[in-house]
């Protein structure tokens, strides 16, 4: 296999699937061995962190075994948010960081993703090379060590406090940590900055991660914000690289709105230094708001890795996804939900999220359709004929976007239209066709 071949295991965010069936201990060991073997260091130093899933310790141990078998040293950082790995790998001068997490997926799933020594996700070619090495035996020579790395959480908190020296005294904030990797870090930093916090989703049991809570289920957070009289709430996902917000009235605000708020604030202060990078999923209203503000927008395919690559190439400072991946490269070159929440508080100042009109959203309907084979969408002629027909009918008034998920057996159908009723109707028609052709 050459590095030009299509990747089969790696998706838009590492290798992900059901733990114990697809993502087995054997595969984790092979990934640890192959990735370590791909490094040029004589004795690679590899940080491993994880979220709170019950399969995490098993996969952590297997991954560490693969690292050690290839002659590297595995440093176990325990439960930490994904962005902490990207920060610590640079701060500690390590060669690689690995995160055992399936992000926003249910607890049965798990995943493994890697960060380079510079804190960036690995490129497509390197991931393809890793896949080509999976069947190779461990190289001859001495094995490495596996040991615990202490102090990682405190190091991460110091980085956050240094980057966002805010005074949140008297600000009542609710945090939903999704029973995931932020369950200690998020409350700790907000309390350290003086906020009066209430928390939900901070009692992980290995199976409740993302279960009716966090950024994929904002209802409980909205209810708590309203009932407690808090001014704002933040909902994180399982591994802590996403965040969404809720204002005092219980209205949810997605990544598009938070990115628009930060981008316009940075531009007003003369700190933007370029434009903003978003994906094809970004609401049309975002583009209208940026055009009105005179801010350049560049669009990439879905996946925060592609947003980050474009940001680094252009040396731009802000970007992200509607789903809540918000990247501020001044802090770390990956999505960081806690950093994005603190950035939101910085941009709001003494103001309230509900009063911050950063953009006006075009009504959008998004439906995830479970399919037998997400890749089969490429050859589904009837589906694409329907997409073209609906797109023509919305020309100049809205848009249709249909794409396979990069991490799950889903086809995502998104429609934006002048009214919610029209968006819903168009989406229902397309969803029906997708189910008929692919389910």
Q: What is the CATH third-level topology name of the largest domain? A: Alpha-D-Glucose-1,6-Bisphosphate, Chain A, domain 3
Q: Helicity, in percent?
A: 25-40%
Widest sheet: strand ordering: 1-2-6-5-3-4-7
First and last CA, distance: 32 Å
CATH class of the largest domain: Alpha Beta
CATH superfamily of the largest domain: Alpha-D-Glucose-1,6-Bisphosphate, subunit A, domain 3
Q: Average pLDDT across residues?
A: 94
Number of helices: 13
Rg from alpha-carbon coordinates = 21 Å
Beta-strand level of the residues, as a percent range?
A: 15-25%
Largest sheet, strands/sense/barrel: 7 strands, mixed
In the predicted model, the low-confidence regions spanning at least 5 consecutive residues are none
List the domain count as a whole number: 3
Q: In terms of structural class, how would the helical and strand content be classed? A: alpha/beta
Name of the CATH architecture of the largest domain: 3-Layer(aba) Sandwich
How many β-strands, per DSSP?
19
- Overall shape: globular
Structure explained in plain terms:
The strands form four sheets. Strands 1-2-6-5-3-4-7 form a seven-stranded mixed beta sheet, with helices on both faces. Helix 1 crosses helix 4 and helix 8 crosses helix 11. It folds into three domains: 141 residues, 3-Layer(aba) Sandwich (Alpha-D-Glucose-1,6-Bisphosphate, Chain A, domain 3), CATH 3.40.120; 201 residues, Alpha-D-Glucose-1,6-Bisphosphate, Chain A, domain 3; 75 residues, TATA-Binding Protein (2-Layer Sandwich), CATH 3.30.310.50. It is α/β, with parallel strands linked by helices and 439 residues long.
């Amino acid at each position: 296999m050459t590095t030009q071949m299509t990747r089969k295991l790696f998706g838009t965010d590492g290798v992900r699937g059901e733990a114990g069936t697809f993502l087995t201990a054997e595969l984790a060991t092979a990934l640890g061995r192959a990735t370590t073997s791909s490094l040029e260091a004589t004795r690679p130093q590899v940080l491993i962190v994880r979220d709170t899933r019950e399969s995490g310790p098993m996969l952590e141990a297997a991954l560490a075994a693969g690292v050690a078998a290839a002659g590297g040293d595995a440093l176990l950082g325990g439960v930490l948010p994904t962005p902490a790995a990207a920060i610590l790998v640079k701060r500690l001068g390590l060669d690689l960081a690995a995160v055992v997490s399936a992000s926003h997926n249910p607890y049965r799933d798990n995943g493994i993703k890697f960060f380079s020594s510079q804190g960036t996700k690995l490129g497509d070619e390197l991931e393809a090379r890793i896949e080509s090495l999976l069947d190779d035996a461990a190289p001859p020579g001495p094995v490495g060590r596996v040991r615990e790395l202490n102090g990682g959480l405190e190091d991460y908190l110091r980085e956050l406090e240094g980057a966002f020296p805010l005074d949140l005294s008297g600000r009542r904030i609710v945090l939903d940590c999704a029973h995931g990797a932020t369950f200690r870090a998020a409350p700790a930093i907000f309390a350290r900055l003086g906020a009066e916090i209430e928390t939900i989703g901070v009692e992980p049991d290995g199976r409740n991660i993302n279960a009716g809570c966090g950024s994929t289920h904002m209802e409980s957070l909205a209810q708590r914000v309203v009932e407690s009289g808090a001014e704002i709430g933040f909902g994180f996902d399982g591994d802590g690289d996403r965040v969404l917000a809720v204002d005092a009235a219980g209205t949810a605000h997605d990544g598009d709105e938070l990115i628009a708020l930060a981008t316009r604030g940075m531009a007003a202060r003369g700190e933007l230094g370029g434009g903003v990078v978003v994906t094809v999923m970004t609401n049309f209203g975002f583009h209208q708001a940026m055009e009105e503000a005179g801010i350049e927008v560049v669009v990439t395919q879905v996946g925060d890795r592609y947003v980050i690559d474009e940001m680094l190439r252009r040396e731009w400072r802000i970007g992200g996804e509607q789903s809540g991946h918000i990247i501020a490269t001044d802090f770390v070159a990956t999505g960081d939900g806690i950093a994005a929440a603190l950035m939101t508080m910085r941009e709001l100042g003494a103001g309230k999220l509900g009063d911050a009109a950063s953009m006006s959203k075009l009504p959008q309907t998004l439906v995830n359709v479970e399919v037998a084979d997400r890749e089969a969408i490429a050859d589904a002629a009837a589906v694409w004929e329907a997409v073209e027909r609906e797109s023509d009918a919305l020309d100049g008034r809205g848009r249709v976007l249909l794409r396979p998920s990069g991490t799950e057996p889903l086809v995502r159908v998104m429609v934006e239209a002048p009214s919610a009723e029209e968006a819903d109707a168009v989406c229902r028609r397309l969803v029906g066709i997708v189910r008929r052709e692919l389910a």
